[in-house]
Each structure stands twice: as structure tokens, then as C-alpha cells.
């Protein structure tokens, strides 16, 4: 199975996804390779979502030689991809290779790390910019963010998305997730399906995923 159900999340198990994530995890992977890795992982995840979560239908087609029957992915043109700035930008670049006709939304969300995690293990989140297309009842929305740590960012982003319409299906796609974040999103937004390439062990005291891959935004944008 390309996607395994593990309770709180669906895990993308494609060997190339695991391989690419291992490159991303390495501290020796520098900015350019890191960014390219996120693009590649986004593309693989997109293909796996299509293969594991979308149906196909038979269609009549005419080749230059004959009439025949082909197969198409149902709903592939009714997808909305939401980019959570900033770390999701290269991830989304890959994802939209699988969904080239997706409508795209952008939400700028960041954790106030100076405030630290509160006693419930959550961060205050600043939402500075929101630009979303209309979301219809026949659409699949994929909210992409490579890191799901405490889940505070994803919960705030999903609330913004849902205030813009109710899609047929709401998917949250991450590269690496921490167990408390998965539980948090599951509890706050039960209608969302969580998809990830890896579920890591834990969060450290600063809210970073361990073993994780560090700060995805800083590594992709070389801001530290
Ligand atoms: O699950 P959470 O605890 O909310 O953490 C996850 C968020 O943290 C990172 O963003 P960050 O705030 O570092 O912004 P950036 O993408 O600009 O680096 C990451 O890209 C997620 O959006
Ligand atoms: O481990 C983490 C947690 C939040 N954001 C990141 O980029 N990495
Ligand atoms: Mg960051």
C-alpha cells in the first residue's frame, strides 16, 4: 500500500519518499540540496496522494488509430493547494507538479518562538497574510507544511481554510510529524485527514521535532 493508516495519520511509505527524507534530515545537507529535496518530496507525496487516495474512472478516447478506453483520475482538477509560508514553499513547488491545475492559496503563519510553548504544549501563532481561492464542496484541499510539531500552526491555518468554505476533503500534508501535533490537529479539526512521511519520537523543550530535521524554513531559506 502506498499510504498506510496509522491511527492519527496516514503515512506515505514510498521508498523514494523515505530516501529523500533521510537526505533532508542529514545535517550535512546544505541549502540548495535541502530545497531541492523538499521539492522532490512534495512531488512524490503528490503522486502518492493520487495513487492512494483518489479514484480513477474509465473514459472514452480516440487515438490517431482507433477508439479506445482510458482511465483518468477523478477530481484531479478540483484540488486546492495551500502553501503555509514559508517552509512549505519548495514543498508546494513539488506538490503542484502532481496537480498542475490546482487552485492555490497562501497563508503566512509563524510560531511566536520567543513566547515559548504554553502549559498545553501550544505556541501563539501569528497569521499575517491570507489569500485563498473560494473553496467548493466538490474540492479536495491539501494544506502543505513540511513540519507538524505542536500542531498550533496547522490548527490556525485549517481554521482559516474552513472559514473560506467546506471542501469535500481536507488533507494536511507534512514531511515530518510529532505525535502531540497529530493528536492536537485531530482533536481540534477532526474533519481533516493527516498525511505524513514520518512520525517522529517527540518534541524537545523548544517545540522542535526530535530527531526531525531542524528548522525547515531556516534551512531552505538560509536564515541562520
Ligand atoms: O506545529 P507547530 O509547532 O506549529 O510548528 C510547525 C511550524 O513551524 C514551522 O514554521 P515557522 O514558524 O518556523 O515559520 P517558517 O516556516 O517561516 O520558518 C513549520 O514550517 C510549521 O509551519
Ligand atoms: O522541528 C521543527 C519544528 C517546527 N518547525 C520546524 O521547522 N522544525
Ligand atoms: Mg521556521
Automatic annotation (TrEMBL):
SUPFAM superfamilies xrefs: PRTase-like (SSF53271)
Record-stated family: Belongs to the UPRTase family.
Cofactor binding comment, as recorded: Binds 1 Mg(2+) ion per subunit. The magnesium is bound as Mg-PRPP.
Enzyme class, spelled out: transferase
UniProtKB keywords: Allosteric enzyme, Glycosyltransferase, GTP-binding, Magnesium, Nucleotide-binding, Transferase
Activity regulation, free text: Allosterically activated by GTP.
Pfam family, one: UPRTase
EC number: 2.4.2.9
Gene that encodes the chain: upp
Role of this protein: Catalyzes the conversion of uracil and 5-phospho-alpha-D-ribose 1-diphosphate (PRPP) to UMP and diphosphate.
Lineage: Archaea, Methanobacteriati, Methanobacteriota, Stenosarchaea group, Halobacteria
Cofactor(s) of this protein: Mg(2+)
Start and end residues of each Phosphoribosyltransferase domain: 11-223
Pathway assignment: Pyrimidine metabolism; UMP biosynthesis via salvage pathway; UMP from uracil: step 1/1
Catalytic reaction(s) noted: UMP + diphosphate = 5-phospho-alpha-D-ribose 1-diphosphate + uracil
Keyword set includes Glycosyltransferase: yes
Designated name of the protein: Uracil phosphoribosyltransferase
Residue numbers binding uracil: 209, 214-216
MF terms (GO), sorted A to Z: GTP binding; magnesium ion binding; uracil phosphoribosyltransferase activity
List of residues binding 5-phospho-alpha-D-ribose 1-diphosphate: 86, 111, 145-153, 215
UniProt keyword annotation of Magnesium present: yes
Entry's Gene Ontology BP terms: UMP salvage; uracil salvage
InterPro entries: PRTase-like (IPR029057), PRTase_dom (IPR000836), Upp_A (IPR034331), UPRT (IPR005765)
